[in-house]
Every structure is written in structure tokens, then in C-alpha cells.
Amino acid sequence: MKLILTALFLASSLAFAADDMAMKTTQLDDLVRGELSAIKAYDAAMEDMKDGKEKTALMMIRKDHDSATTILSKYAAGKKSVLEDTESAGAWGVFAKTWTKGAALMGNRPALTALTQGEEHGISEYKEALEDKNLPADLKKTIKAVLLPNQQRHISTLKTFM
Questions:
Q1: Count of C-beta atoms within a 10 Å radius of residue 29
Q2: What is the pLDDT of residues 93-112, one digit of tens each?
Q3: How far apart are CA 106 and CA 95, in angstroms?
Q4: Is the pLDDT of residue 89 over 50?
Q5: By three-state DSSP, how is residue 137 classified?
Q6: In whole angstroms, how far apart are CA 92 and each of 72, 95, 96, 125, 140?
Q7: Buried b / exposed e across 17-26, counting CB within 10 Å, b at 16+?
Q8: pLDDT at 160 over 70
Q9: pLDDT at 85
Q10: CA 20 to 30 Å from 5, out of 15, 21, 109, 118?
């Protein structure tokens, strides 16, 4: 099973790299796409989740990612290149869903680990965004006050089930 997950990871990573090279993305693109990917990953994990408490927690975290997508999309409004670029999660979304679904086949713990890794990646993306001079100050304030704390809370929640 580990070999299958590794193969899925490599194939999806190659697709993501090709997708990223095919178009020049902005930090806002990356944030929106990351949140869309998180939604797909949580949907995939919840399909196979059996424990009611865990599933309820995942539903709440997914709701946070949906809210983050709404917040970030508000900043993308009117920017045609950003909107076209982030209508879907792209190759990264395929990777997130595939990785999480593959992990879920091995049980809740690997799926929760995959989700935790995604949340940690999200923290890195948000910290990187705070350094981006092209992002509006009010968006950076929202990242610091809402989005980053949510990511950190998600990790804490996921770790309680591992």
C-alpha cells in the first residue's frame, strides 16, 4: 500500500509542477488554489471517515477552508487573471484529493496525517504571503488575525485524533 501511495504522490507532484510551470501564478492564486485543494482533501477524507467525532471535526475544518476561499476570492474579484486561474484547484487539488483518499484507504490515522501535512503547508503559504509586497495590507491583516490562527487550530484539532 505504501508503494501505491508513493506512486500516487509522485504522479500528482509531476502534474502539479507542470501546471505551475504552464502559467505564472501570483501569491493570491496560490492561496486560493490551496484553499480549494484543502476543501477537496477534506471531502475525500470524510467519505471514508467512520468515527463521528472525527468526521464532525473535519466538517468544521472544511467549513473554515470554505470561508477562507470566500475571503480570498473577494480580493481576486475584478482581477481577470486571478479569477480564471483559481476557478478550480488545478493539479494541486487532484494531488490533495488523491493523496488524502489513498491515505484514507489505510485508515483514519494516515488520512489525518496527510491532512495535517496540508495544513502545515498552508501555514507556510500564508507566512510567505505576509512577505508579498503585492498583497493589500488589509488582506495581510486578515491572514494574521484569522487565516493563520485557523490553520494552527486545525493542526491542533487533527493531532487530537492521531
A1: 22
A2: 555 556 666 655 666 777 78
A3: 17
A4: no
A5: helix
A6: 17, 5, 6, 14, 23
A7: eebbeeeebb
A8: yes
A9: 44
A10: 21
User: What one-character DSSP code corresponds to residue 45?
Assistant: H
Residue 159 C-alpha cell reads as 493531532
Instruction: Yes or no: say if 95 and 40 are a contact pair by the CB < 8 Å rule.
Output: no
Phi and psi, residue 86, nearest 5°: -120, 20
* Domain at 2-160, CATH class: mainly alpha
109 by Cβ neighbours in 10 Å (0-12 / 13-18 / 19+) ranks as exposed
Take residue 62 and report the three cell numbers written for it: 472544511
Predicted confidence band of residue 31 (pLDDT cuts 50, 70, 90):
very high
Average pLDDT over the chain, rounded to whole? Answer: 77
Q: How far apart are CA 118 and CA 3, in angstroms?
A: 20
Best CA proximity match to 65, nearest among 140, 134, 153:
153
C-beta separation of 131 from 37 below 8 A:
no
Q: In the 8-state DSSP scheme, what is residue 143?
A: I
Distance of CA 107 to the CA centre of its chain: 20
Q: What is residue 144's three-state secondary structure?
A: helix
